[in-house]
Design a protein that fits this description.
Helix content: 55-70%
Order of helices and strands: EEEHHEEHHHHHHEHEEHEEHEEH
Structural class: alpha+beta
Shape: elongated
Low-confidence stretches: none
Mean pLDDT: 92
C-alpha cells in the first residue's frame, strides 16, 4: 500500500491523465459484500458450479470495477482536455472519485466534466445489453452481461439525479452558476438538493416495501442507511464548502488586516506613536534602510512602556522581526489573497500588505482564520 501525501491511501495500480489510479482498502470490503450478494443469483442459474459460484460472482464485481474506472477516467480525461489538472482517480467503497487540482473555470466545463461519467456508464450498459442479446439465453456469460447492463444503467441514471455529491448535482450547480453568475450559490443550492435526494432515497427504499405490505429486509435497511448517510454527508460538505468559498471570495486586505504606519528602524517609540496617530493606524511597521519591512511593533509590549520613557525607548525594543518574504500584495483579493497569505504565514504568523512598494497594513493569520469561520 502506498500513502500519497495529501491524497487517498491505497494501492496504486496504474496512471492515467498524469494521475495515479488508486484502489482503496474499502473497495476490498465492497468487493466481498457484492460477491456474496450476487453469488445466490449465479448459484440459481448454475447450481453445478459449487465454489465456482463465487468466482463467477467475483467476475461481476470485476466488471463493476471496470465500469467505475471508466466512469472516473471519463471525468478526468475530459477535465484535462478542458485545462484542469487531475490529481488522482480513486476506487472506493462507494464507487470512486476523481480529484482535481482546482475548480472548473466555467459552468460549461463543470457540467461537461460531470455528465461524461454517467454517459460512459450508459455506453457500457448498451454494449453489455447487445452482448447479452448475442449470448446464450441461459448461460453465465449472458447473466453477467445483463447484470452489467442493468448495474451500469442504474448507476448512470442515479448519478444524474440533480443533487450533490452526485454528478447530476454538479450539473445543477453549473446551471445555477451560469444563470446567477455565482458559483458558490450554485454549490449551496445543489447541496440542499442533495439533502432532499438523501431523504428521498431512504423514504423510497424503506417506504416502498412498507406500502406494499412487506417489511424491508436487514440488508436493504443497512445499505439504505449507509447510502443515505453518504449522500447526506456529501451534500452537507458541499453546503459548507459553498459558504466557505463565498467567505473566501469576500476577503480583502481591508477586511482582515489592520492599517499600519511606517517608521525607520532607528526611530524611538514616541516617533512610532506620532506616525500611528497621523495615519489613523492601529499598527506600526519598522523599515530597514533599503525600505523593506523588517519588523512590527508588538502592541502589548509598547503599551507597557511608561509615557515618560517613550521618547528615549528605541522602537526595536518592542518590535517583532519579520523574515524575508513576509509580505503579500495588498491588491489581491479572494482566493488569490488567501493563498498568498497562506504561503507567507508558513514563515511567520504575521505579514505585511504592500501596495506598489508601500506598506499599507499588517495581516495576522488568526484574523484570516476568524474571517473564514465567520
Amino acid at each position: 500500500m502506498s500513502a500519497r501525501r495529501g491524497g487517498t491511501r491505497g494501492w496504486v495500480v496504474g496512471r492515467a491523465a498524469g494521475a495515479p489510479i488508486i484502489i482503496t482498502p474499502s473497495w476490498v470490503l465492497a468487493a466481498v459484500v457484492l460477491t456474496s450478494l450476487f453469488a445466490p443469483t449465479v448459484q440459481a442459474r448454475a447450481p453445478e458450479l459449487g465454489m465456482g459460484t463465487y468466482v463467477v460472482a467475483f467476475g461481476f464485481v470485476v466488471l463493476l470495477f471496470v465500469s467505475v474506472l471508466v466512469h472516473e477516467l471519463a471525468h478526468g480525461l475530459v477535465a484535462q482536455a478542458r485545462g484542469q489538472t487531475v490529481q488522482e482517480f480513486a476506487i472506493t467503497l462507494w464507487g470512486g472519485h476523481t480529484a482535481f487540482g482546482g475548480v472548473a473555470p466555467t459552468p460549461a466545463t463543470s457540467a461537461l466534466v460531470a455528465v461524461v461519467g454517467p454517459v460512459a456508464n450508459l455506453v457500457i450498459a448498451g454494449l453489455c445489453w447487445v452482448g447479452g442479446q448475442a449470448a446464450a439465453p441461459d448461460g453465465l456469460a449472458g447473466l453477467l452481461l445483463y447484470a452489467g447492463a442493468f448495474s451500469n444503467g442504474f448507476v448512470a441514471v442515479f448519478n444524474l439525479i440533480p443533487g450533490l455529491p452526485l454528478d447530476g448535482g454538479r450539473v445543477l450547480e453549473a446551471a445555477v452558476w451560469r444563470v446567477t453568475g455565482d458559483r458558490h450559490r450554485g454549490t449551496i443550492v445543489a447541496g440542499w438538493a442533495g439533502r432532499v435526494v438523501a431523504v428521498g432515497v431512504v423514504l423510497w427504499a424503506l417506504g416502498l416495501p412498507l406500502m406494499s405490505g412487506r417489511s424491508p429486509d436487514v440488508v436493504t435497511v443497512v445499505w439504505t442507511a449507509l447510502i443515505g448517510a453518504f449522500l447526506w454527508s456529501g451534500a452537507g460538505a458541499a453546503i459548507r464548502g459553498g459558504h466557505t468559498g463565498r467567505a473566501v471570495g469576500q476577503i480583502t486586505v481591508a477586511s482582515v488586516g489592520t492599517r499600519a504606519a511606517t517608521v525607520p528602524a532607528t526611530a524611538m517609540l514616541a516617533d512610532a506613536d506620532r506616525a500611528r496617530s497621523a495615519a489613523g493606524a492601529q499598527d506600526v511597521v519598522l523599515l530597514a534602510p533599503d525600505g523593506r519591512a523588517a519588523a512590527y511593533v508588538d502592541r502589548a509590549a509598547a503599551d507597557a512602556v511608561p509615557p515618560a520613557d517613550r521618547a528615549h525607548t528605541p522602537v526595536t525594543a518592542v518590535a517583532v522581526l519579520l523574515p524575508v518574504g513576509a509580505w503579500v500584495d495588498a491588491r489581491l483579493a479572494g482566493v488569490d489573497l488567501v493563498r498568498a497569505i497562506g504561503a507567507a504565514t508558513q514563515r511567520t504568523p504575521v505579514v505585511v500588505a504592500v501596495d506598489g512598494g508601500r506598506v499599507t497594513a499588517l495581516v495576522k493569520a488568526v484574523d484570516v482564520v476568524a474571517a473564514l469561520r465567520a
